[in-house]
Each structure stands twice: as structure tokens, then as C-alpha cells.
Amino acid sequence: MDSFIGLAKQGLAAYESSQSNVSKTGGSEYNSPDNRPQSVSRPSFNADEVAQTAAEQGSGHAGMFSQAVSYVKSNTQEHEEPIDEEHVTNSHQEAYERGNASSLSAGSMGSAAALQIFKQFTSGGGGGGSNSQSQLISMAMAEASKLFDQSGGASSGSKQDAVNGAGMMVMKMLVQSKMSSMMGGGNSGGLGGMSGMLGLLENFIR
């Protein structure tokens, strides 16, 4: 998992570097597609469907999950912020290996839940395409809600914060992996080669 997140971070760094000149001249990268490797495509999904699926699988009302989806979709700048791989990995270990999720903040709990679902998805398949992306987000938010309740809450933050964190972590993984893929695939040697997990993730971002 470390290699995957590290690769995603490398892709993000390379992308930001490619945009530095555009930013300095005052141009907007979003309005200058010719100066980008390609326009970064964010996962598209039906917000109501994602929230409803999460509510069916998780612990909480649909409104909470709808609010989380809105948070993820509206805070697009966070999609490209580097993932703190050490923090996410440690949070996952604390929650799922040591059974001490209650020591985590709600946001960290959400990230741990997202990583748990992500690992399940990539190891067990699940098909590709936008439907799989929607399912991944729904399952991560649902897992965060259940983890929050099972742990008796978090050290700080609310259940909404945990669900928001899970949804945002999935989006960051998807977007940043897409960036890494655009920078060069493993077979061509770009960025030092794709990890097996990233290769599987490409099924979800085509």
C-alpha cells in the first residue's frame, strides 16, 4: 500500500511542477488544457445514489451521507492535496489491527475506513467504471459510520466528520492515481513503475 500512495504523491508532485509556469503567469490551469498532460478527470457519480447506498450499508440516515457527498464534491481543491501516507497507514493499523479506533480523530478514522474498503476492493475485484467508483465511495462512507459507532466515537470530531473523511480519502486516491497514470505507466518505466494495487485501481478510473 505504501508504494501505491507514494506513487500517487509522485504523480501529484509532477503534475504541480508542470503547472508552475502557468500559475506564475497568472493563467488558470483549468482554462489551459494544452499546458496540462490532460485534464484531470474526477470520478462522476449520482450523489443521491451514493448517499442512499451508503445509508443502506452503513449506520446513519441518508441525510448525513448526502452531506458528505456534497462536501467531497464541493471541496475540489482537496482532491489534489498530497496524501500523508504514514498517517493514513498508521490510522488504519490502529483501527483494524490494534482495535483502538477510538483513539483516532474522526477524520483519521474516516481515512482508515477508506483504506480498509480500498484494500478489500483491490484484492477482491469488483469491476471497473463509474459504477465501481460510486460503490467504492458508498462503501467507504458506510464503513466509517459503522467504525465510529463500534468504537464508541472518536477522540475528537463527529460521525459526520468521519464519513466526510472517508469520502474525501477515496476521492483523493482516485484523482491522484489518475494523475500518476497520466504521468507514465509501469510498463513504460514512468515514475519508477506501477504497483500492483495501482494497476488494479486503474480499473476504477478509466
What does this structure look like?
The chain is mostly helical. It contains eight helices and no strands. The radius of gyration is 17 Å and the shape is globular. Mean pLDDT is 75; it is low at 7-12, 18-38 and 185-200.
Spell out the blueprint of helices and strands:
Elements: H1 2-24, H2 47-57, H3 62-74, H4 85-96, H5 106-124, H6 130-150, H7 159-183, H8 196-205
Helix pairs in contact: 1-7, 2-3, 2-6, 3-7, 4-5, 5-6, 5-7, 6-7, 7-8
Percent helix: 55-70%
The averaged pLDDT comes out at 75
Strand content: under 5%
Terminal CA distance: 21 Å
Largest sheet, in brief, is: none
Protein name: Beta-flanking protein
Pfam families: DUF7721
Organism: Lentinula detonsa
Biased composition (Polar residues): 16-44
Key traits:
206 residues, mainly alpha, 8 helices, 0% strand, globular
Task: Describe the structure concisely for a colleague.
With 206 residues, the chain is mainly alpha-helical. The chain has helices spanning 2-24, 47-57, 62-74, 85-96, 106-124, 130-150, 159-183, 196-205.
